């Protein structure tokens, strides 16, 4: 245990005492999920980063003294904490039993990119939903799918963000459309 902790201390130190790196695990919430452990950890981390809240490590009381956490740049949160930084970063590690190892860095969306949407007369936010498809029939299917998701109370801002950033908008039919509150 000494070598890994020493390596982590070298990477994350020196840090001011008020900027210690919080450690967490999804296992305290759900147990070990075997093949789903990595995605569960990623989801917990994305939620923490996007909400600006560092969740507590459930059922944690006393650290193993061999870790010497008090001499490290790390802390284990025992209660929810507000994330102090405007830009929030978190790392997620997953080590598969089959030998697949992964480490991901998750970052918050910068405020400059977090568009402020105008409010409508009813107080609800207006959202532009950009759609594009390779054919008229494909565009109609896509619009029908989005309309169905919205009827089931999907978050309009999330749908619009995904349509803009995760779908191709350079297809033959021009993008267009709007979600009306």
From TrEMBL:
One GO MF term: fatty acid synthase activity
Ketosynthase family 3 (KS3) domain span: 1-108
Keywords, alphabetical: Phosphopantetheine, Phosphoprotein
InterPro entries for the chain: Ketoacyl_synth_C (IPR014031), PKS_assoc (IPR032821), PKS_Beta-ketoAc_synthase_dom (IPR020841), PKS_NRPS_Biosynth_Enz (IPR050091), Thiolase-like (IPR016039)
PROSITE patterns listed in its UniProt record: KS3_2
GO biological process assignments: DIM/DIP cell wall layer assembly; fatty acid biosynthetic process
Annotated Gene3D superfamilies: 3.40.47.10
Coiled coil: none
GO cellular component: cytoplasm; plasma membrane
Stated name of the protein: Ketosynthase family 3 (KS3) domain-containing protein
Source organism of the structure: Escherichia coli
């Amino acid at each position: 245990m000494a070598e890994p902790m020493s390596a982590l201390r070298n990477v994350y130190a020196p840090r001011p005492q008020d900027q210690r790196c919080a450690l967490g695990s999804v296992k305290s919430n759900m147990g070990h999920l075997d093949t789903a452990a990595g995605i569960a950890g990623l989801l917990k981390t994305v939620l923490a980063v996007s909400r600006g809240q560092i969740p507590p490590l459930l059922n944690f009381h006393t650290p193993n003294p061999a870790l010497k956490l008090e001499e490290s740049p790390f802390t284990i949160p025992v209660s929810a904490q507000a994330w102090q930084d405007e830009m929030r970063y978190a790392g997620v590690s997953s080590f598969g039993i089959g030998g697949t190892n992964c480490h991901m860095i998750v970052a918050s969306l910068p405020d400059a990119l977090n568009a402020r949407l105008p409010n409508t007369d009813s107080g609800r936010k207006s959202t532009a939903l950009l759609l594009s498809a390779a054919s008229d029939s494909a565009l109609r299917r896509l619009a029908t799918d989005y309309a169905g998701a919205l009827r089931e109370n999907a978050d309009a801002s999330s749908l619009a963000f995904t349509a803009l950033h995760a779908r191709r908008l350079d297809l033959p039919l021009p993008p267009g459309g709007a979600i009306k509150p």
